[in-house]
Amino acid sequence: MDLMRSALAGHPEEIYSLLKFKLGGCETVQTKCHYDQMCPSMRTCYQYLNQTSRSFAAVTQALDGDLRDAVCIFYLVLRALDTVEDDMTIPLDTKLDMLHNFYTYLQDPAWRFMDSNEKDKMVLEDFPTISQEFRKLKPLYQEVISDICRRMGAGMAEFVQRSDVDTLADWDKYCHYVAGLVGIGLSRLFSGSEFEDQLVGEDTDLANSMGLFLQKTNIIRDYLEDQVDGREFWPRQVWSKYAKKLSDFRQSEMSQNALWCLNELVTNALLHVPDVMKYMSRLRNQSVFNFCAIPQVMAIATLARCYNNPKVFQGVVKIRKGEAVKMMINATNMENFRGIMRPFCEEIFSKMSQQDPSYSVTMEIVETIRQLTETKHNALTIQTTLSPLHVSCVLVVAAMTWQYWTQIHWIYEHYLDWH
Ligand code: D61
Ligand code: MG
Q1: Residues whose beta carbon lies within 6 Å of some atom of ligand 1
Q2: Rounded CA gap, 177 and 171, in Å?
Q3: Among 6, 157, 321, 377, which has the minimal tally of Cβ within 10 Å of its Cβ?
Q4: Rounded CA gap, 208 and 276, in Å?
Q5: Which residues have CB under 8 Å from 414's CB, separation 6+?
């Protein structure tokens, strides 16, 4: 199905990436974990990481040295905290108490929480396994994780008591608490591991922007999912210019206003791209570069797909698997990073209309991103004389032949031989 989606979208190069990925040839997410030599509780932690994170599990297990376990534990501790924040069945006073005191549970070998109904509740029910591994990390890593956990818990408690996100400044503040602080914590872990310069951990503004770009993209994409769950994270200051209620955007007659509101929020998220480019240009360790680059390119691809797209109000807009895999394979240095970001900037530009109230602001940031994503060769595509569609068909046939051949081979291996 993924092969067909890329073929029909006229992107033969994605079929090549999908086949390469299927054959296990994706260096950037090759795990460096030796699970057989790991203590059982740390192995359990990596299982929880794979169960709770689609986006960060593979790139975390590809990190170098002791950074790997530190980032894995950092993720699970914050995922546990977020599971408390997201659980609408926990009474408010209990939730506020837990959010404020969560970082203290890291020092309590027995603390666990058994009353969550969330999908990721296992990280709360088996928190002793996670906190045990936390206390084995070197003191600098423990200090960073505990500090970020304390500040994120306090920030989440502040917004849980408020009904919604009001101004754009509130939106930046909320995204700082739940994602900017992750970027700041990760950057201190990167510098603390000495795989990256001290400057990476010290420049908190850039690290914060890395998180805000990812979180704002998620909040924009998840409009409908959050509406269905009775949650609203779009800033009132923006949507109240286009509707009386945020839920009005679900009605088709509101579609133009809904799109203008959506485009204004995408434009706001794009304002973080210059900081993201500067942050990425400072990284020196390959595994850290890949770890940071992959979520960022997935985010700009998602933003480009969401821009001026009515489907945001009818479901969850997703990028193609082939596209995602191609970016994962190629996002390994700044030249490629720029080359991947650029086409999505052009995709947004191609959907802009002068009637859009945000047109001039969007045009300005698109121009800025164009300058920052100039590359020696702007297109990272296969130059062929055959049209993309022809190439796609050839590759699909090749893929199906290969699929058929492996099956024949497998049947031969497992059956004919055995008998
Ligand atoms: C470089 C590389 C990765 C980065 C980064 C810089 C800066 C920030 C981030 C990753 C975090 C991006 C978060 C975007 C996804 N949003 C969420 O997960 C929301 O929960 C936020 C609070 C918990 C944060 C958990 C987290 C996430 C990624 C990590 C990490 C911790 C630790 C290390 C590495 C990556 C969202 O949760 C969705 C859900 O519940 O499934 C929400 O509730 O809003
Ligand atoms: Mg949350």
Answers
A1: 56, 71, 74-75, 78-79, 82, 86, 178-179, 182-183, 186, 210-211, 214-215, 218, 291-292, 295
A2: 10
A3: 377
A4: 9
A5: none
Give the HSE-up count for residue 75: Cα atoms under 13 Å, Cβ half-sphere.
Answer: 24
Residue labelled with tokens 């799109």? 259
User: pLDDT digit string (tens) for 328-380?
Assistant: 999 999 999 999 999 999 999 999 999 999 999 999 999 999 999 998 765 54
Return d(Cα 356, Cα 258) in angstroms, integer. 11
Q: How far is the CA of 41 from the centre of ligand 1 (A)?
A: 23
- What percent of the chain is helix, strand and coil (3-state, nearest 5)? 70, 0, 30
CB 196 within 8 A of CB 63: no
Q: What is the pTM of this model?
A: 0.92
What residues contact residue 252 under an 8 Å CB cut-off, 6+ apart? Answer: none
The CA-based dihedral angle spanning residues 283, 286, 288, 291, taken in that order and rounded to the nearest 10 degrees? 120
266 close to 303: Cβ distance less than 8 angstroms: yes
